[in-house]
Amino acid sequence: MSDEKLPMLLAPAGKDYLWGGERLKKEYGKAFDLTPLAETWECSVHPDGPSVIRNGVFSGKTLSEVLSLHPEFAGGKNTGDFPILVKFIDAAGDLSVQVHPDDSYAYQYEGGSRGKTEMWYVLEAEEGAKLICGFEHKVTAEKLRKSLEDGTLDRHLESVPVHKGDVFYIPAGTVHAIGKGVVIAEIQESSNLTYRLYDYDRVDAKTGKKRELHFDKAVKVMNMEPGDEVRQKPRKVAYYPGCSRELLIRCPYFEAESIRVSESFEFSVTENSFQVLLCTEGYGSTGRAKDEEPVSFKKGDCIFIPAGAGRLRTSGRCSLLKIRS
Questions:
Q1: Are residues 60 and 19 in contact, defined by beta-carbon separation less than 8 angstroms?
Q2: Containing domain of residue 251, as a range?
């Protein structure tokens, strides 16, 4: 493997949205001078929050700059494009009730942007924590507008209890909100488009104003039919010497696998796609199996592995999300 295709430890961008907390600083090692710290964009080329390389020959460059120099690092499947964004989210308060457009709508009406389909992997959940995912019954734009006027929107929304280890798939067009007391890892399309339907009449401390709502756009892109079954489905865990592996999701935009490492495991990164390792517990190292200094990581760290990196070994005692397009 060339020095250019070594695993790259990433430094994230931070976001201080008003509903955030302090857990990403205290429990995930995020050294930001932001209060609150709501999100960290761990693996991102989005201009609203690009991540930066922390090691190797590209140290100090943004991931976006590196991929501009080496579009092949994204993989032949992605033709020089980088399709995903990986985040940590700390919801100390309720997030707004919101919806994201799909690719077609975003491309046409939002300057060629991607839409936003996403997945949530619950890392922490306080007792009684909930989230909103879809509608309990069919609604109309008129019914939603009236419910916002009279304060009864919650009667239409599907509220779901949340527990550590839960996985939720949120296709574009699904009305949703993360409830307070939840920390998640989010994997999504590389997009920052959000249409807020309701924000609890909160005032932004920085502006002194309520945050903008986007009712007209939201009703154009949302699925107003009752949501699919949200209940957690059984997932199959495969056990190997040194690790266990569990496929969490495979969709048109990304694939995510949960891996618990007790000793080590090996995996291949082909020319087809990059891969990302997000450490959610413990510590370890990853690198080529032979004759190379591995890259060390700990809870909260994120590593980008260029397409074509070849065969790698990850060792340690840790929990990881392994992500690819």
A1: no
A2: 237-324
Q: What is the pLDDT of residue 91?
A: 98
Q: How many angstroms separate the CA atoms of 275 and 307, rounded?
A: 7
Residues 181 and 33 in one domain: yes
- The residues assigned a catalytic role are 196
CATH of the domain at 195: 2.60.120.10
* DSSP three-state, residue 206: coil
Is 30 among the domain residues?
yes
pLDDT tens profile 108-151:
999 999 999 999 999 999 999 999 999 999 999 999 999 999 99
- CA 278, chain centre distance (Å): 10
pLDDT, tens only, 62-78:
999 999 999 999 999 88
Q: Is the dihedral of CA 31, 296, 5, 3 positive or negative?
A: positive
State the average pLDDT over residues 163-173: 95
- Return the structure tokens found at 133: 């995912």
